[in-house]
Amino acid sequence: xxxxxxxxxxxxxxxxxxxxxxxxxxxxxxxxxxxxxxxxxxxxxxxxxxxxxxxxxxxxxxxxxxxxxxxxxxxxxxxxxxxxxxxxxxxxxxxxxxxxxxxxxxxxxxxxxxxxxxxxxxxxxxxxxxxxxxxxxxxxxxxxxxxxxxxxxxxxxxxxxxxxxxxxxxxxxxxxxxxxxxxxxxxxxxxxxxxxxxxxxxxxxxxxxxxxxxxxxxxxxxxxxxxxxxxxxxxxxxxxxxxxxxxxxxxxxxxxxxxxxxxxxxxxxxxxxxxxxxxxxxxxxxxxxxxxxxxxxxxxxxxxxxxxxxxxxxxxxxxxxxxxxxxxxxxxxxxxxxxxxxxxxxxxxxxxxxxxxxxxxxxxxxxxxxxxxxxxxxxxxxxxxxxxxxxxxxxxxxxxxxxxxxxxxxxxxxxxxxxxxxxxxxxxxxxxxxxxxxxxxxxxxxxxxxxxxxxxxxxxxxxxxxxxxxxxxxxxxxxxxxxxxxxxxxxxxxxxxxxxxxxxxxxxxxxxxxxxxxxxxxxxxxxxxxxxxxxxxxxxxxxxxxxxxxxxxxxxxxxxxxxxxxxxxxxxxxxxxxxxxxxxxxxxxxxxxxxxxxxxxxxxxxxxxxxxxxxxxxxxxxxxxxxxxxxxxxxxxxxxxxxxxxxxxxxxxxxxxxxxxxxxxxxxxxxxxxxxxxxxxxxxxxxxxxxxxxxxxxxxxxxxxxxxxxxxxxxxxxxxxxxxx
Length: 725
Ligand code: ADP
Ligand code: MG
Fold this sequence. Notes:
Bound molecules: adenosine-5'-diphosphate, magnesium ion
Number of domains: 4
CATH architecture of the largest domain: 3-Layer(aba) Sandwich
Helix content: 25-40%
Mean pLDDT: 87
Distance between the termini: 36 Å
């Protein structure tokens, strides 16, 4: 234990530093904070973590309204003294037993009533004559002839026996209000944070780089870290409350810039270390190789595809390993670009790995590559779940002996115990389905392979910077010729029969349809049961003239593959499925996508599903089957989706509405937890941080100051580093 309280002191050690803080209190607080700040255990929670638990609003208590100033429906804090507190048991009409706790509150100008249901213990909290602040929405009660407030937020005044905490931190000024943390209410948190700030004195400043200060546009105004912490918790008189509440004050900037800088530095460092981990897989491009590539291509490339392949080739033939993120809307034709990179690597004598997130996609890629590369001498295999252990073992041995050039597999299959003789290229398809902070590790054997990451969920720039900040970005912003936007419509239950008629019509014309059911039940088993029942019913009652197939996550790998193959071959016309088809599936003849309970999906996910159709030249349709009861907000989202064909626009909205974790579906997989900054709101600060971090790593990676920053960065954002992401 260090002698002096510092930002890195574990919260559970507080009793050694502050009087009247018990081990139980400290332990409880740390336990409450851990999940909020994204730390695995209470023991990891530090003083800084608590100090970065920012107020969610501020209240100007320098002039609180008096009772006579209240108006009906007004949300306000009022200071009163407690009179006649009482609890009354009440029996409701349907026989339920409730307890009502209420008291009368008074100030010099009048009287109010405050009441709570079923919290009898409040009797102890509010003894008569106690002074309290009540916050809530005030309603005039005709029955009681005064304003009243139900279940208000409250703060007891003057209950601190603590000589070192002046009452003036709670009243008569602008005070911070915190969200309750377990049993810790705003006032307790305010007191503790005040005491911590006092005890800490001047915390050492992490000197932000000058470049970052000037890029932020706030150079002259940025406070030191200690000042910033004080200012966000206890704003000085005359501070701009609007700016504070919006978290855009110079003090917030100081703290947010620090965390963005440390994150982008950690990401940049991960890339640098990867580049230094071994020699770059050397790649040249010759006319012979160009000819080979041309020979394989089944169709002319779009302009965007040509541009991106040039970017990829420049990386591959350059002196540093490629670290590139390829973003392109669903159906923009990323696979064919991966194919070209694979050919170039193999022609240079390297092995290449293509990773996909699902078995179904692995099989699909395997089939396309086998078809495209039919006339080529490349040795190709897929490591899939349906192989016998002995077959997997044989493939692994062949990889280690360089008897295979290209391997396709899920991430798990390629990683487990797999060694490559000469791995030169890794392509990761649909990266957003994989973890983010814990990028994949592959055995590299002293060679740093080229890495191409492809994602089909368009990612807003801000999010891409935070999540893929270590990658260069290529954008495929053009769809192959002949594509028409998918006609998207909302249909209520009364139109179901007509939707089925329409499917019949399309299938009669030789096309195919998906019907997607969301994951709804707690257990996948129940969902599967629902989808199975639906498929049986549809086959029997609605589409007896067609073949209805069923695909879900619980099928065995070979069963999934056989259903997909029959659908791809057109033997199945209607595929009833769960979201397993969400990513990557490419059956260009399918022209109808029906989504049941679309309100249960995020927009980015709906866009992925819609992207399963409209991949050929036939006009395609996406029908959202809305239920009878749907909230106005959900309806608004779905309407926006129906009107918007562009994946990037949809992603921006999804990010705004649902936040980054939900949007990427990576809540569990370690999207960095930001404490002050918000990548959507503070994109300007994030951009400034990223530019600065990269310049520093390029210009002075070995400076003592840079090393200091890097040490902090790794502490704050521990990224997994492997040979490969
Ligand atoms: P995604 O970017 O979603 O992975 P795919 O690579 O699966 O998209 O491509 C979608 C469909 O478009 C595939 O059927 C593919 O063969 C086709 N395609 C890709 N590029 C072109 C092109 N330049 N011209 C015509 N069709 C193309
Ligand atoms: Mg794809």
